[in-house]
Design a protein that fits this description.
disordered N terminus, 586 residues, 4% helix
Length: 586
């Protein structure tokens, strides 16, 4: 499904205008973030919070992230249980949480596993010389055949399947329609494959004892050497690379290549996979078990009959934004807070919206908006509902205090605003916050999902604001979660294409994406070129169906684990103007 963003009435994404925030300040303000979060409900309710905070003469930065929502647990674990046959077939075992496993599918000699964005299990079979897709209901289809010895399998953010062919000494790339190209040749017994979060592909070259790194464009470089028969590869949320030596050790490499032994004591370590909670699962094919290496270094074991386990994978869940947050000083005229969002899915979405101002003083935020007013508009710009002071329903002029309290997220100041709304699926909506009497100040706009189990989700978040310099660039924040813990997104910074409707559009935006520790995940200036690799990313961005329409605009396509992130938009060479910062889930 394709969603388009109307620059005049952004309804696809919630982006937000924030003051300038360096990575250092993000990290420094975690305490303040947590203080705010602790004030939010603890009943498991999904909070899709859009927080816009800015301080006049900023001396610190606060990023409002509603940590109240517990991130969903990880998905089911799938393990190839080798050398346990029924006739001429071997099993792939599915371990749902709290179970000892059950047979999900059988094949001649399954080896490596991966999941595509539709939830299909993609597996290599070395006896059938094939890649097989298994639907969630267990139905098998041969995706491609005529391979020699397909082992490692991995899928990129655009849905391309990469296969390491052991005895053909090559990596083949298959487009979603099955078109095959050679991604890399001249290797020496390739085994494990894994992508980092920047789109680089890592390959265990078991015959040479090396680990190779390939950019998205296929440029090869030596990442590590002197590895004893490298096999499975995995990448953690901080982009560290883990490699199983086919023996006692699992090695850890920082992104710059620094090597340590992460864990040892195996007989034949083979497959690696990270659970959404950060635990590393390691298959010991000769020991006949799957070990769970906890984040604190302790070790437990998967309970169940896996015999001689090979590779393993976690089923991804429907990754989704749990929170959106951004800092913005609400001004007047065209520079009020304008945020947009969509409820994607097949049914309506009921939520509560809030506009928070005076209670920000409890966090030491000066210059807060003293009396915020909240409006909700549909995709045509028509006013659906509005609210000034939350205890009174503006439309009926009756009390709505009991209804708002029942949501468990009532504002703490009578001058703040709230309204309950039901959104139609797949239509854009905008939430506008103004100061009563054309006043200015820091404000927070939030949306909480009141039907988290419904077949719809808040998605495609955007906000329009005035990008200035210094402390007043634009920063959008969001938290990702989901049962699998990973989400594929495109983050965009839009400026010149807002013209002619916006007369002071930002001429040349730049974009940075940082994690909750302030570490740079990616950056981009002009969207057709990947800033990290200096290679073209045009095809990957176009494949999302959401390419910017002006070459000077910015985009980052990335698959991210659960956690908080910030998107920072500035004008190149100190430029100023109106821009959109957007985060689409794909």
């Amino acid at each position: 499904m394709e969603f388009k963003c109307d620059p005049q009435n952004p309804g696809n994404l919630f982006t937000t205008k924030l003051g300038h925030e360096t990575a250092r300040r993000v990290k420094q303000m975690v305490g303040q973030v947590m203080e705010l979060a602790m004030k939010q409900p603890r009943d498991g309710r999904l909070g899709f919070s859009l927080c816009f905070l800015q301080r006049a003469l900023l001396v610190g930065v606060a990023l409002c992230l509603s940590w109240s929502t517990v991130l969903a647990a990880g998905g089911d674990l799938y393990v190839v249980a080798g050398f346990r046959t029924t006739g001429d077939k071997e099993r792939v075992i599915k371990f749902a949480p709290g179970t000892t496993g059950s047979t999900f599918v059988m094949s001649s000699r399954p080896y490596a596993l991966a999941f595509d964005s539709s939830g299909n299990l993609v597996m290599s079979d070395v006896v059938l010389h094939s890649i097989i897709k298994v639907a969630p209901n267990g139905t098998k289809n041969t995706f491609t055949s005529a391979l020699v010895t397909p082992l490692g399998v991995v899928i990129d953010s655009a849905g391309n399947i990469f296969v390491g062919d052991l005895h053909d000494n090559a990596i083949y790339k298959f487009a979603p329609d099955g078109t095959r190209t050679t991604f890399a040749a001249g290797l020496n017994l390739p085994t494990g494959l894994a992508f980092d979060h920047m789109g680089n592909l890592f390959e265990s070259d078991s015959g040479s004892g090396t680990v190779n790194k390939f950019t998205s464009g296929g440029t090869k470089s030596l990442f590590a050497s002197g590895v004893d028969d490298p096999q499975g590869v995995a990448v953690d949320s901080a982009n560290n690379i883990y490699v199983a030596e086919f023996g006692p050790n699992v090695l850890k490499f920082t992104p710059d290549g620094t090597r340590t032994v992460f864990v040892s004591g195996f007989t034949r370590a083979l497959g690696l996979a990270f659970a959404p909670n950060g635990d590393l699962y390691v298959s010991d094919t000769e020991g006949g078990y799957v070990a769970i290496v906890k984040t604190d270094g302790s070790r437990t074991f998967v309970q169940g009959d896996v015999q001689s386990p090979r590779y393993l994978a976690f089923e991804p869940g429907g990754g989704r934004p749990l929170n959106i947050s951004t800092r913005l000083r609400v001004q007047t005229g065209d520079n009020v807070l304008i945020g947009g969002f969509i409820a994607a899915g097949s049914v309506t979405k009921k939520l509560v919206l809030r506009a928070i101002g005076p209670s920000l003083a409890n966090l030491g935020i000066s210059g807060f908006l003293a009396d915020p007013r909240l409006e909700l508009h549909d995709h045509n710009g028509a006013l659906i509902a509005s609210n000034d002071n939350w205890k009174i329903n503006d439309q009926s002029q009756q009390s709505q205090e009991a209804d708002i309290i029942a949501t468990h997220v009532p504002p703490t100041n009578d001058l703040e605003s709230a309204l309950i709304a039901t959104l139609e699926p797949n239509q854009g909506y905008t939430a506008i916050v103004r100061g009563v009497g054309d006043t200015s100040g820091v404000a927070v706009v939030e949306a909480y999902d009141l039907e988290a189990d419904a077949d719809s989700k808040l998605a495609n978040i955007s906000t329009r604001g005035l990008v200035e310099t210094g402390e007043n660039v634009m920063i959008g924040g969001f938290i990702l979660g989901g049962s699998g813990g990973f989400s594929r997104l495109i983050v965009r910074a839009i400026g010149p294409s807002l013209a002619p409707g916006i007369t002071n559009a930002l001429a040349d935006p730049t974009l940075e994406l940082r994690d909750g520790q302030g570490t740079l995940v990616g950056s981009n200036d002009n969207w057709k070129t990947n800033d990290q690799t200096q290679q073209s990313q045009e095809a990957e961005v176009r494949a999302t169906t959401l390419p910017p329409s002006n070459d000077l605009e910015s985009a980052i396509v990335v698959t991210l684990p659960a956690g908080p992130y910030t998107a920072i938009v500035a004008g190149k060479n100190g430029g100023v103007g109106v821009a959109l910062v957007e985060a689409y889930t794909l």
